[in-house]
């Protein structure tokens, strides 16, 4: 058939490719998703912190360095009675006050953990060094753990409650210290509970040199006075200070009286206050944690606060939060 007579066929039209329609999100949709993801991560981190202090992990994750150190201090404290000299006992008493009252009660607890006062830099270094020499952990570890205790007091996540899942006074008193925690757990604890402290040069210095400060006093004490000075000035002194602090964690959440209604089981216990330079007025403290004074009634003696008053009078401590709280119940 001639081409001219061939039926005309229409050439196929090229198909038009339409670009896929972009999904239009609301302006703040991505921000909301990111915020939700951030909240989920924060919640997961919190649960990890709480779980890292759970007693169910104890016998599977023992911190052998802590267990060996505390055992050695107790053995040394018993052995000290076979090496008694009055000079060694006097040094032990003096160091007990310096490391427990000045170091732990004033430095780690009221100053660092609760910001009950401010200190001039030399005084800050001195009180934190005294706390380090107590052997109760680095300043950051102590402060972060204590803030967690207040946040979750006698609830799941409290590091050393005699209630909650432990229901055991011995857990609150000593066993919780033997639980090994990963470096990631520790970092999360710092980020959550001491974010304004964790990068401070002075605290980082003590964090990095903590082990040295555990060994150095023993070397010095032995060089000065031999075994009596080592056993009394280090082992006995540390052991008695340990239990003085530990009774605050255990006994004052079990026995005593209450001046204030709080959401936890904190109580005031006179004999713990005697052993711990005033820290045994624990219900007062939980009701008013940032107050520099632990004793709120005339008969609640607080020797650590007497030192704070002296530091305030000399200008070494300032911005001291020491106003007597609203009257406690009779």
Automatic annotation (TrEMBL):
Which organism is the protein's source? Alienimonas chondri
Q: Is Nucleotidyltransferase among this UniProt entry's keywords? A: no
Show where the Fatty acid desaturase domain sits.
86-311
- UniProt subcellular location: Membrane
- The name under which this protein is listed is Fatty acid desaturase domain-containing protein
Q: Where is the signal peptide?
A: none
In terms of superkingdom, the source organism counts as: Bacteria
Q: Which UniProt keywords apply?
A: Fatty acid biosynthesis, Fatty acid metabolism, Iron, Lipid biosynthesis, Lipid metabolism, Membrane, Oxidoreductase, Transmembrane, Transmembrane helix
**Main localization category:** membrane
**InterPro entries referenced in this protein's UniProt entry, alphabetically:** Acyl-CoA_DS (IPR015876), FA_desaturase_dom (IPR005804)
Family (UniProt)? Belongs to the fatty acid desaturase type 2 family.
Q: How does it sit in the membrane?
A: Multi-pass membrane protein
Q: Where is this region: Disordered?
A: 1-30
Presence of keyword Cell division? no
What residue intervals traverse the membrane?
66-89, 95-113, 125-144, 210-234
């Amino acid at each position: 058939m001639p081409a001219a007579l061939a039926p005309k066929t229409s050439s196929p039209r090229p198909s038009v490719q339409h670009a896929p329609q972009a999904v239009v999100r609301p302006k703040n949709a991505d921000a909301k998703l990111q915020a939700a993801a951030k909240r989920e991560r924060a919640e997961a981190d919190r649960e990890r912190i709480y779980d890292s202090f759970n007693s169910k992990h104890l016998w599977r994750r023992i911190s052998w360095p802590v267990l060996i150190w505390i055992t050695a201090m107790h053995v040394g404290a018993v052995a000290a009675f076979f090496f008694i000299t009055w000079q060694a006992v006097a040094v032990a008493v003096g160091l007990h006050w310096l490391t427990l009252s000045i170091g732990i009660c004033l430095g780690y607890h009221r100053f660092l953990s609760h910001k009950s006062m401010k200190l001039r830099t030399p005084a800050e270094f001195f009180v934190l060094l005294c706390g380090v020499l107590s052997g109760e952990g680095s300043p950051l570890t102590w402060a972060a753990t204590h803030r967690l205790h207040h946040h979750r007091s006698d609830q799941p996540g409290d590091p050393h409650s005699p209630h909650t899942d432990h229901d055991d006074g011995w857990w609150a008193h000593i066993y919780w210290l033997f639980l090994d925690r990963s470096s990631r757990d520790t970092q999360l604890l710092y980020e959550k509970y001491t974010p304004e402290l964790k990068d401070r040069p002075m605290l980082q210095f003590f964090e990095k040199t903590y082990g040295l400060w555990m060994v150095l006093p023993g070397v010095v004490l032995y060089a000065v006075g031999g075994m009596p000075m080592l056993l009394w000035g280090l082992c006995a002194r540390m052991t008695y200070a340990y239990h003085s602090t530990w009774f605050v964690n255990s006994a004052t959440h079990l026995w005593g009286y209450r001046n204030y209604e709080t959401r936890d089981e904190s109580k005031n216990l006179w004999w713990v206050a005697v052993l711990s330079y005033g820290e045994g007025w624990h219900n007062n403290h939980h009701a008013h944690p940032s107050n520099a004074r632990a004793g709120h009634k005339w008969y609640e003696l607080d020797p650590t606060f007497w030192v704070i008053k002296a530091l305030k009078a000399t200008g070494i401590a300032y911005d001291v939060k020491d106003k007597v709280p609203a009257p406690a119940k009779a």
